[in-house]
Specification:
six-stranded parallel sheet, single chain
Length: 271
């Protein structure tokens, strides 16, 4: 039964991330209810939706903001604006998973501010964004991230295609890219949301330095971050197990669920 003050949550996209979030909401998150979803092919997801205890409405993406207080974007990055803009225009919150796409649509932040909306970026497949956020209150001198991914997780990336790089027969690690988080997000839009989230927490997408390696010796998505700040020097490493989509870590969906839980939790841990 829906309580009057429950926050209504809508999900755009029911891929490997969206289905896990929908399932968690259906099983119960305090103070939240799954109200609507938007999918490209409703028939494809009918069996999943019918399996939920309280099947949500199926709506066009532009209408999710009418049916929810929080809209969760779990779609390809080229759909980000169509999902986020209608929500924040209505003063609602939008949880952005394809945060790399936010860099090309950063005016949405101003739009949200003007209309009382919010854009929430989950930690996703990273570790330690709390520490980076805290360090950024002071002065951060440098942020560097090195990402190593299995071959399957990098196939089809625009940077690899544009430069005609063959990664299929690699027998040892190959450095594909070194540059800013902004450039990395353009070249690897399905892989480097983590770098953009890190950059937004710290020194921005142009000062955050990124290396990307195709590594046939790893089976997990590996990220190592080094931060130099006036308050602390710290390094962090995480090895994420890929989800059904090899480009996405299993922990990404769990991070969104954790963020949603915080919206109405009595006890919140972490900044």
């Amino acid at each position: 039964m829906t309580e009057r003050n429950d926050l209504r949550v809508a999900i755009a996209g029911l891929g490997s991330i969206g289905t896990k979030i929908a399932t968690a909401l259906d099983q119960g998150i305090e103070g939240l209810v799954l109200s609507a979803v938007a999918v490209r092919d409703p028939a494809k997801h009918r069996a999943f939706l019918d399996s939920l205890r309280r099947p949500p409405q199926v709506l066009p993406i532009g209408q999710l903001g009418e049916a929810a207080d929080i809209v969760v974007e779990c779609a390809p990055s080229n759909q980000l604006r169509a999902i986020v803009e209608p929500a924040v225009k209505r003063g609602k919150a939008a949880v952005v998973v394809s945060v790399g796409g936010l860099l090309d649509n950063f005016d949405l932040v101003d739009l949200a501010r003007a209309n009382g909306g919010r854009i929430l970026v989950p930690t996703g497949a990273l570790i330690g964004l709390d520490a980076v956020n805290a360090a950024a209150v002071g002065t951060i001198h440098s942020v560097r991230m090195v990402t190593r991914k299995p071959i399957d997780g990098l196939k089809g990336a625009p940077f690899i295609v544009a430069n005609n790089i063959d990664i299929d027969k690699l027998s040892e690690p190959l450095k594909l890219f070194e540059g800013s988080a902004r450039e990395a997000a353009k070249g690897f839009p399905a892989n480097l949301n983590v770098a953009v989230a890190l950059s937004l927490a710290g020194v921005g997408p142009d000062r955050t330095q990124v290396q990307i390696w195709a590594d046939p010796t790893v089976t997990r998505n590996v990220h190592r971050i080094e931060v130099e700040a006036d308050s602390a020097r710290f390094s962090m490493a995480i090895e994420n197990i890929p989800s059904e989509n090899p480009k996405t870590g299993l922990i990404t969906a769990l991070s969104v669920i954790a963020l949603l839980r915080k919206q109405r939790a009595t006890l919140c841990v972490g900044t």
